[in-house]
Amino acid sequence: MELKLKPSESYLKQLSFFRVIIALFCIFQAMAIYPNLLELYGANGMINSEIGDAFISNVLIRPNIQNLYPYLSPYLSAELFSYLVFYIYVLFLLLLTVGYRVRLFSALSWLFHLILINSALHFNYGVEQFTKICLFYCVIMPTGYFAAISKKVINETKNDLIPFISVKILQFHLCIVYFFGGLGKIKGTHWLNGEAIWRSIEQPQFQQFDMSWIAAYPLVLKLLGLFVVFIEISYPIFVNIKKMRGIHLILVIILHLNIAIFMGLRYFAAIMILFNLSAYGYSYLSAFSHQFINRILSVMNKYKRILKNVFATPNIQNYD
Asked: Where is the HTTM-like domain (predicted)?
């Protein structure tokens, strides 16, 4: 008998999936940063904190390692304090992943992530901003009802509409981001004539391969630029048409995979792919996982029957 989930329960599972993959992403990103922790966040890092503060002096409240350290300077060295903040951040993310006191540790993870990115503003780009937004969504949305050791009891009358609105907020956010990203691209000529593609793959800080040969094929660059603009500006239309959603999601994932491969922005590509899968791709992932698990169970049962027949005790009758 097939179990039919109520809409609210399905949305709650989707939001719990969002929490888990965002927390895991943050942990993997933190592990990648760890070898260069002091260079990024330390008092004697690549960019002195006083220089960084000079560019954002108009911000009244900006918690960061440099501003918080004086309160503990009599007890800890600056390097040890940087490591302590980092370790606490990772601990909170682990607790968020397993679903312990989800609302509390979502808020603490978001706060410590904010402290870290505020400590290295000049090294931040899109991935930090989207990670900060996703962690904030974990704070305000009901993401702790499934895959959580502190599992909450579903109250249908209270949570029937909230999960639905929460998922729609995730979807609306992506629609706004992609649409206005595409709209901004068509205002100029750089994306329409392929120049932006050329610059993206040939800038020294982004260049992963020698792609100079592609300059001989301007039509290819132009088509790639038009492809990016089309994917982004048509995003709100096609992802909200059920028959087109899967195809457009695949195109978006291909777009971000190419950003990771040819520009080296792997974590930005990863957070965008995970965001898309959480907002629009969860039903496909859920269906695929169920089919995969059922297939595995079917194969296991098949071999179980074979082994049972092989090792079964023969029924020997005595005719004496």
From this structure: 12-281
Q: How many of the other CB atoms lie within 10 Å of CB of 104? A: 15
Q: What contacts 16, CB < 8 A, 6 or more positions away?
A: 99, 143, 144, 145, 146, 147, 148
Q: What b-and-e string marks burial along 283-318, b requiring 16 or more CB atoms within 10 Å of the CB?
A: eeeeeeeeeeeeeeeeeeeeeeeeeeeeeeeeeeee
**Domain chopping of the chain, boundaries:** 1-160, 178-304
The mean predicted confidence, pLDDT, of the chain is: 83
pTM (2 d.p.):
0.84
* Cα 71 to Cα 68: distance, rounded to the nearest angstrom: 6
User: Phi-psi category of 87—alpha, beta or left, where left has phi over 0 and alpha has psi -120 to 50?
Assistant: alpha
Distance from C-alpha of 125 to C-alpha of 128, rounded to nearest angstrom: 6
Q: Are 50 and 59 in contact (CB under 8 A)?
A: no
- Side chain identity, residue 67: N
For residue 126, the Cα-to-chain-centroid distance in whole angstroms is 12
Own/partner long-range contacts of 89-96 (Cβ < 8 Å, ≥24 apart): 89/30, 89/113, 89/115, 89/116, 90/27, 90/30, 93/23, 93/26, 93/27, 93/30, 94/23, 94/27, 96/19, 96/23, 96/138
pLDDT higher than 70, residue 308: no
What's the DSSP call for residue 234? Answer: T
Residues 6+ apart with CB under 8 A from 294: none
Instruction: Give the separation between CA 301 and CA 318, rounded to whole angstroms.
Output: 33
CA 316 to centroid of chain Cα atoms: 62
What secondary structure letter does DSSP report for 131?
Answer: H
Tokens found for residue 177: 């981001």
